[in-house]
Amino acid sequence: MLLHKGETLFRQGELGPLYRINSGMLKIIRLHEDGSPIVMNIITAGETIPHHSLITQQAYHGTAVALVTCDIEVLPSQEWYQTLENHPEKCRDIALLLQNKLRMMQQRIDQLTQAAPAAKLHKLEQWFDEHISPATLSDVLTQDEIGQLIGLRRETVNRLMRAKADKRKESGASV
């Protein structure tokens, strides 16, 4: 199935199938009790989601929204869990999927623990570039969402992005 930028794959609290992301990128948004959204996770090509339901089914923890056009394979829950029951060796595949996700989360923690705000933004831009180039971070996320991912206020993200754009203009003008 194709999911286009801005379209929703599933919603927080629903129960449904698992999905394999063949190409593209999704954001997982969680709504707080007051209705405010926060970006909880970024899903990239090769992942099977939701991670918390790979062994046993649970309601979706957040809402999945396409950041770019995605090619997604639906994995019916009944078949998925029956395959695991009949072929326990498949659990190793799940362990490898989760290991890869943990490694990605370690990269995200590295982004968050950078001391300088500009370094946090730079690390996040580098990571996104690996997955969505030639699109850029600001092509797929709002400044507020970028700030949520790296622990900065939207205003700080705005200031850093403006300074970076000004620096590019200056270096381009002096050539």
UniProtKB/TrEMBL annotation:
Domain of life per record: Bacteria
GO cellular component term of the entry, any: cytosol
Protein name: Crp/Fnr family transcriptional regulator
Domain Cyclic nucleotide-binding: 1-84
Tagged with keyword Cell membrane: no
PROSITE patterns, per the entry: CNMP_BINDING_3
The keyword rRNA processing is annotated on this UniProt entry: no
Stretches assigned to coiled coil: none
Signal sequence, renumbered to the chain: none
GO-annotated molecular function: DNA-binding transcription factor activity
Organism: Paenibacillus sp. BIHB 4019
Keywords tagged on the record: Activator
